[in-house]
Design goal:
Layout lengths: L4 E4 L6 E2 L2 E2 L3 H10 L3 E6 L6 H10 L9 E3 H12 L4 E5 L2 H9 L3 E3 L7 E4 L7 H10 L6 E4 L5 E4 L2 E4 L1 H12 L5 E2 L5 H11 L6 E5 L2 H11 L2 E5 L6 H6 L6 E3 L10
Parallel strand pairs: 1-4, 1-13, 4-5, 6-7, 6-8, 8-9, 9-12, 13-14, 14-15
Antiparallel strand pairs: 2-3, 10-11
This protein binds magnesium ion.
GO cellular component, one term: cytoplasm
Pfam families: Hydrolase_6 (PF13344), Hydrolase_like (PF13242)
GO molecular function: phosphatase activity
Length: 259
């Protein structure tokens, strides 16, 4: 089957921290040689596409910011479209707040007047922040938006907690689930992918290391899915999962077998 486009995950698929994953360069060359249009889609909500391109460059990969979509960009455009007039309270990193204010959204420092509470990875998250989030969400009319569901992220030192962990902490104390969790595999993320690649789903591959985000996105979109075993998923996870990739490869180096 001649594929025309590929959605590539970044962390655990192409890089781990700032280091390239062995075989990733080979795989990217192979995809380029096969003429596939590519889009890097990351559930990292903290970095803008230019910062992501720079991170990829440090790892030895050339990528243009226009080839990159992150949970931050998806969250900013979703909120600008649906909650433009809301006052936001953000449990997240300063770089996420900047991405939201950049598109004209209003972010309050206190949560008491918030219409929408945005919850995301926050490496300085603590008890006081959890108290503030609980107060901000006290009214049931307050919308809770998660940036992405990633429970852990593959970092240089091993896996570390991601947005999913903070979202669970907040929704646990508030006593209700978020109204929406963006990033892969959400519908808003699939829409962005669709708009940016502009190709029929059946002509596209999704390559990633996570079953519940990368592979689930591809499965729901109707794309051919490829799991790489260079990230967070091991054989045990795969055996237990209800999400089944079409192909499983050791690393991106083996993408030729799928093409
Ligand atoms: Mg990944």
């Amino acid at each position: 089957m001649p594929y025309r486009g590929v959605v590539l995950d970044v962390d655990g698929t192409v890089v781990r921290g700032d280091e390239p994953i062995p075989g990733a360069a080979e795989g990217l060359d192979r995809l380029a040689d096969a003429g596939l249009d590519r889009l890097f889609v990351s559930n990292n909500p903290t970095k803008r596409p230019p910062a992501y391109a720079e991170r990829l460059r440090r790892a030895g990969f050339d990528a243009h910011p226009s080839e990159i979509v992150t949970a931050g960009t998806i969250t900013a455009s979703y909120l600008a479209e649906r909650h433009a007039d809301d006052t936001l309270f953000v449990v997240g990193e300063p770089s996420l707040v900047e991405q939201l204010t950049d598109v004209g959204l209003t972010v309050a420092t206190e949560g008491t007047d918030a219409d929408t509470v945005v919850v995301s990875i926050d490496r300085s998250f603590d008890y006081d922040r959890l108290c503030a989030a609980l107060r901000a969400c006290a009214d049931d009319d307050v919308t809770i938006v998660g940036t992405d569901p990633d429970m852990v992220i593959p970092a240089a030192e091993g896996n570390v907690p991601g947005s999913g962990a903070i979202i669970n902490a907040v929704s646990g104390v508030v006593g209700r689930d978020p109204d929406v969790v963006l990033g892969k595999p959400s519908k808003p993320a699939r829409r962005v992918v669709d708009e940016r690649l502009g190709l029929p789903a059946s002509d596209c591959l999704v390559v990633g290391d996570r079953l519940d985000t990368d592979i689930a996105l591809g499965e729901r979109a109707g794309m051919t899915t490829v799991l790489v075993k260079t990230g967070v998923t091991d054989d045990r996870d795969l055996a237990r999962s209800e999400v089944t990739p079409d192909h499983v490869v050791d690393s991106l180096a083996d993408i030729g077998a799928v093409l």
